[in-house]
Amino acid sequence: MQNKVPEVTIAFWTIKVLSTTVGETGADYLAVHVGLGTAVTIALTLMFLAAALVAQLKKRAYVPWIYWLTVVLVSIVGTQLTDLLSDVLGVSLYVSTAAFGVLLCVIFEVWYQSERTLSIHTIVTRKRELFYWAAILVTFALGTAAGDLATEALGLGFGPGVVVFGFLLVMMGVAAYLGANRVLTFWLAYILTRPFGASLGDLLSQSREYGGMGMGTIVTSVAFLSVIVMLVILHTAARTRHGNASTT
């Protein structure tokens, strides 16, 4: 089958950050403002994620709307997994960050030993795709735990969190440009987009008394989802035009 992951472009990273922010604000909206609670929110979003993953795995090529819907749902589930551990079960953010970090290393090690590559440009078999989505889920959970650890437990705050994680993301781009290992810098950047997007989402949605801008989770989620939908539609249209041009 064809590679099931989109090309890594500015649009890719833009949608990734937006989906990360939606994961943070969307999870908070469902669990807190709707009143579903963490456990019910996880159960509900897990069902939607399972359906999206089935649709994604059935396709033989990259389909933009299915892929990015799956990413958004993985973002929400990853956020809720961390919140369940810290808020409901009382697990320290230090422990959950370390645990998710170790789990991600294990997934990468098993993936590499099996396939001899961690490149997202070679997701052309079902096994590699399963490894890929397992890694994606854990990167979201790890990024959530690390972001909460930095902005809340260590007192960094939402605004400084956006600046710090944004700077680290830029450094990953600079490192890749200067010749650093592209696979390594990609995965490090992918992890960093989670705390960056979460800090951005909290900065926009949280009330001013907690250091936010007071936009609320509904407005923030709807605004970012609208941009995601627009970018995916434009991306799909561009792929369609390119495909038509290639056949003429």
UniProtKB/TrEMBL annotation:
Pfam families with a match to the protein in the record: DUF347
Residue intervals passing through the bilayer: 30-55, 62-82, 88-110, 130-147, 153-177, 184-204, 210-234
Keywords carried by this UniProt record: Membrane, Transmembrane, Transmembrane helix
Xref: InterPro entries: DUF347
Name this polypeptide is given: Membrane-anchored protein
Source organism of this protein record: Paraburkholderia azotifigens
